[in-house]
Write a structure and sequence with these properties.
The protein has nine helices and twelve strands. The protein is of the alpha/beta class and about 230 residues long.
């Protein structure tokens, strides 16, 4: 599902990065770094969805969020550096449809946008959660959730991105370089070995099954160890 998307982000590099990824996914994208301009566009252009940074320099992002949701009923995916639970609750109270904390993968933002558009449009063909290992692990990309053995996993965006990247092709070996680009996007300039620490944290959160779900292939990288259920 594609739509006209307004990206409101004061950092130019992030704004342009999101524009490129969203356009690549087929969306018509307008961008601005100004909250005041965003308010004007909400009233005049009425975009199909807004990707909104709450930390704007001229107008509080929450004001833009209220205008979009309360006056126009426009779906909003919020971007923020605010990590406190109270900030997330406040965003939800003002009607945010989804919430992505910086730093993030641009691919993740595109997936969140697609999921919100599907829910808003009531897409009948939206796929359900993917199941692996005879139901041991379920990954619901629309809800951005992973459940292992009935336990909801508390994953960071990077850990969730790693899990879904590996699960996209069970048994296939991914190099560290591939995983960096899948999870962080080509803008990430860090050393590939940082993936190892994220894998370690992901396995810890997976618990006793961690080494089976995410397998190490010595000298190459990692692979997903569970088969996808039919």
């Amino acid at each position: 599902m594609t739509a006209s998307v307004l990206v409101v982000e004061d950092e130019r590099e992030i704004r342009e990065l999101l524009r490129r990824y969203l356009e690549r996914a087929g969306h018509a994208v307008t961008t601005t770094g100004s909250g005041a301009e965003a308010l004007r566009l909400v009233e005049r252009a009425v975009p199909g969805l807004i990707v909104l940074d709450l930390g704007l320099p001229d107008v509080d992002g929450e004001e833009v969020l209220r205008a979009a949701r309360e006056r126009r009923r426009i779906p909003v995916v919020v971007l923020t550096a605010r990590r406190a639970v109270e900030d997330r609750i406040r965003g939800r109270e003002h009607g945010a449809d989804d919430y992505v904390t910086k730093p993030f993968s641009p691919t993740e933002v595109v997936l969140r946008v697609q999921a919100v558009l599907s829910r808003a449009g009531g897409a009948a063909g939206e796929p359900g959660p993917a199941s692996y290992g005879q139901g041991r692990l379920r990954v619901d990309e629309a809800r951005h959730e992973a459940v292992l053995g009935g336990r909801l996993l508390d994953l960071t965006p990077t850990e969730y991105g790693l899990l879904t990247a590996l699960a996209s092709a069970p048994g296939r070996v991914f190099s560290r370089y591939e995983l960096v680009n899948r999870v962080r996007g080509y803008e990430f300039s860090g050393y590939e070995r940082t993936i190892d620490s994220h894998v370690k944290n992901l396995r810890r959160k997976l618990g006793p099954d961690g080494g089976e779900v995410v397998e190490t292939v010595l000298g190459v990288g990692y692979r997903f160890g569970l088969a996808r259920d039919r």
